[in-house]
Specification:
Number of helices: 6
Structural class: alpha+beta
Order of helices and strands: HEEEHHEEHEEHEHEE
Radius of gyration: 21 Å
Largest sheet: 8 strands, mixed
CATH superfamily: Nucleotide cyclase, GGDEF domain
Helix content: 25-40%
Length: 234
């Protein structure tokens, strides 16, 4: 009889580990459906959202200079600081891609508040403050300071599973996404810590202080982008 006790314990442990390691399905938005293979699929739908892109200035040469192990630890430390801030403001993280971050605020998650432009700007201001503290800690260890730039755009996007039957990814595409990416890149030319589009500013004028920034055009065919730097709360 005693031989069955360790076998039963091992079976229980295996079931617990299987439950822990099983991937969780992302929360659904309205209009979700089941794929033919019975896996959960979220049908792409148009949404009014606010998109946030962040990146670190000149991190690739720094990564090479520090070495891959030190560079990877630095990235992990950076994301360990930034990710909880985004989640605290109901942001949905779509992608970590090396030193860049892509996330959205709005009716993607059931817990989302109504003014997603406010959520995104509060998040980036808190992230910038956290970055200053992180840089202070890095300095005490003899590591170089990091500079994070950010683009924020409020507008329309298609949100849902994009891809094929073989592979799809829950993401967002569309004008707001493109605009946020362009603003993030423009930060480097303007020396602004963040750039916000006019719609995001319009929805949060009573909440934050902004300064107008002349951002360079996204292409030769376009004119200068109307953009603003969020510099603090009112």
């Amino acid at each position: 009889m005693d031989i069955f006790i360790p076998i039963a314990i091992a079976a229980v442990i295996a079931l617990i580990l299987r439950w822990i390691l099983t991937p969780r399905v992302a929360p659904r938005v309205s209009g979700s459906k089941r794929a033919k293979d019975n896996a959960s699929s979220i049908q792409p739908i148009p949404l009014d959202i606010t998109v946030l892109f962040t990146n670190l200035d000149d991190f690739v040469p720094l990564f090479e200079r520090l070495g891959h192990q030190t560079g990877a630890r630095l990235l992990n430390e950076y994301y360990a600081v930034m990710t909880p801030i985004i989640k605290r403001h109901d942001g949905f993280i779509h992608q970590h891609a090396f030193d860049s971050l892509f996330c959205c605020f709005g009716p993607i998650l059931s817990a989302s508040r109504s003014n997603h432009a406010e959520q995104a700007i509060r998040a980036i201001l808190d992230m910038q403050n956290a970055m200053d503290l992180l840089n202070d800690r890095l300095g005490t260890r003899g590591l170089p300071r990091l500079r994070m730039r950010a683009g924020i755009a409020t507008g329309q996007a298609i949100v849902g599973d994009i891809g094929s039957a073989e592979f799809s990814q829950f993401t967002a595409i569309g004008p707001a996404v493109n605009h946020a990416r362009q603003l993030e890149k423009a930060c480097k030319a303007t020396d602004a810590r963040n750039l916000v589009n006019s719609e995001a500013r319009l929805r949060t004028l009573a909440l934050f202080r902004f300064r107008a920034v002349q951002a360079p055009p996204a292409s030769e065919e376009d004119g200068p982008m109307e953009s603003f730097e969020a510099i603090g709360r009112l």
